[in-house]
Amino acid sequence: MRTRLTASLATIAITSATLLGGGAATASAQTLPSFIPQHLIPAHLAPQVEGIVSQVRAALPPEAWAAVGSSEMAYGDVAAFGVSGGLREGIIREIDAYRVAHGRGALAPNADLDRAAQAWADRLAARDEVMHNTGLIDRGHGENIVAAGTHCGAICLVDLWKNSPGHNENLLDPGYRSAGMGIAYSGNGKVFVVHNFAY
Question: Which of 36, 56, 117, 182 has the fewest CB atoms lying closer than 10 Å?
Answer without folding.
Answer: 56
